[in-house]
Amino acid sequence: xxxxxxxxxxxxxxxxxxxxxxxxxxxxxxxxxxxxxxxxxxxxxxxxxxxxxxxxxxxxxxxxxxxxxxxxxxxxxxxxxxxxxxxxxxxxxxxxxxxxxxxxxxxxxxxxxxxxxxxxxxxxxxxxxxxxxxxxxxxxxxxxxxxxxxxxxxxxxxxxxxxxxxxxxxxxxxxxxxxxxxxxxxxxxxxxxx
Amino acid sequence: xxxxxxxxxxxxxxxxxxxxxxxxxxxxxxxxxxxxxxxxxxxxxxxxxxxxxxxxxxxxxxxxxxxxxxxxxxxxxxxxxxxxxxxxxxxxxxxxxxxxxxxxxxxxxxxxxxxxxxxxxxxxxxxxxxxxxxxxxxxxxxxxxxxxxxxxxxxxxxxxxxxxxxxxxxxxxxxxxxxxxxxxxxxxxxxxxxxxxxxxxxxxxxxxxxxxxxxxxxxxxxxxxxxxxxxxxxxxxxxxxxxxxxxxxxxxxxxxxxxxxxxxxxxxxxxxxxxxxxxxxxxxxxxxxxxxxxxxxxxxxxxxxxxxxxxxxxxxxxxxxxxxxxxxxxxxxxxxxxxxxx
Lengths: 194, 342
Fold this sequence. Notes:
The complex is a heterodimer. Chain A is 30% helix and 34% strand. Chain A contains 3 helices and 7 strands, in the order αβαββββββα. The N and C termini of chain A lie far apart (49 Å). Chain B is mainly beta. Chain B has a single domain, classed as Beta Barrel (Porin). Helix content of chain B is 9%, strand content 54%. The radius of gyration of chain B is 22 Å and the shape is globular. Chain B starts with a helix and ends with a strand. At the A-B interface, helix 1, strand 3, strand 4 and helix 3 of A face helix 1, strand 1, strand 3 and strand 14 of B. Chain B: It holds the Pfam family BBP2. Chain B: It comes from Pedobacter panaciterrae.
C-alpha cells in the first residue's frame, strides 16, 4: 500500500511538473512571447526559405501571412485553439490569436509568437463551443477569482507554441529543397513461404 | 507484492503516456454544468411562472447536464443528457410511457464542404435569445418569450455559410419539443445569420407548421441579436411574433438585455421585457411587463447569479397573488443561483 501511495505521489508530482514547465516569458515591451532560435548549419539558405514556405503552406488554415521581406523574413497572424483535456477527454476552452514572425539567416532561424489575444469559448445551444465576442490581451490581469484559469491558458498557449515550433523545426531541418512526400505503403508479407 | 508494484507503475506509465499523446487532440469532448438555486417570492407564493427558478423558499436543484461531442473527419455527433427538474420536469418531453429519455440534443452532422453542412436529429431550438442551459444565459430566471417559444426542434437542416459574416439555414422539422412527430414532419424553418461588424451578430428566424391537435398553422418570426458595443458593454435584443391561424392566438414580445462588465469576473445585466398573449377568438389580449436585474460573479467554472425581478400583470393573466391570497397585478422575487460549468 505504501509503495502504491509513493508511486501515486510520483505520478501527481510528474504531472504538476509537466504543467509548470509551460511558462511564457515576456519581451522588452512587456508582452508574453514565445521565442526560439534554432541553428541548422547543414541547411542551405535557399533550402531554408523553401522549407519556410512549405511550413506556412501546411499551416495555411491557422496562419495567414501578411508580408515577407524577400525570402528571409515572414510575418503573419495565427490562431491556436486551446483545449482542456485529460486522458484524451475534454473540450476546447478558447482560442488565442497571435502575431508570428520567422526570420532566416545563414544556418539559423528565429521564430517569434507574440501579442497573444485570448478569446474564451462558450457552449452554444447545440452543444458546440464557440468564441465569445470579447477578446483580452494575455497581459491583462484576470483578477484573483480567475487567476487559476488564466494560468492554465498561459500554460496551454506555451504548449501550443512549442508544438508549432517543433513542427517548424522538423520542416526546416529538411536539407533538400523540394523533398517529395513519402508515400507510405503498407508492409507486405508473404503467405506462400513459411 | 513486487509484481503488484510493477503493474501499478506500468499502469501509471500508460496513463501518463496517453495524457501526453492525447491531451492536445481531445477526440471526445465532454462538457456540462450543474446548477442550484434559492428563490424567495416576496408574496410567499410561487407567483412568477417563467422557467427555471420556480420553487419558493427552497434551496432547489436545477439539473446536471452532460454533453458529448465527437468529430471524425467531416462527420460529428452531439449527445446531451440532462438529469434533474430543469431537465425532465421543465425542458424535455417524456416518452409515450412517461419515461424520460433525458435527451436535450441528439444529432449527427456532416460537413460536405467548409461552407455547407447538414444536421439531423433532435436539436436545441434555433429560435430565441435564451436557452435551456444555465451556462449560456446571463439571467437565471427566464423571459416569457423563452417560455412561450420552442425548446427543441427535431428535424433535418442544411446550413450554407456564404462567408464568416452571413449564413443561411433551411430545414424540415417535427412539431415543437417532441421526439416523435405524430402528424408527420410538418414544419419548415429557416435562419438567416448576419454579422455586419465585429461583435455584432443577428439571427432572423422563421418556423411554420401545423402541429398535431392544433387549431391552425403556427408561424413564428423571431429576431435575436447581440452587439458587444465595447469590451465592457453588451446589448442584446429578442423580438418575436407567433400566430396560429384561424384566430387561435399566439404571442408577441420584445426583450432588451443591456449588460455591463465591471471586471472580467463581475458583471451586471438587466432584462426588460414586454410580452403579449394574443387572445383566442373573441378573448382579449393580455400583456405582461417584467424587469430583471442580475449579477454574474465568476470564479473559475463557478458563476453566482444574484437576481431580483419585478413583473407587472395588469390583465391578471398570471394570477399573481398577494400574501393575503388576493389577486395582485404585480409580483417580485429574489433568487441566488450557483452554476458550475465544466
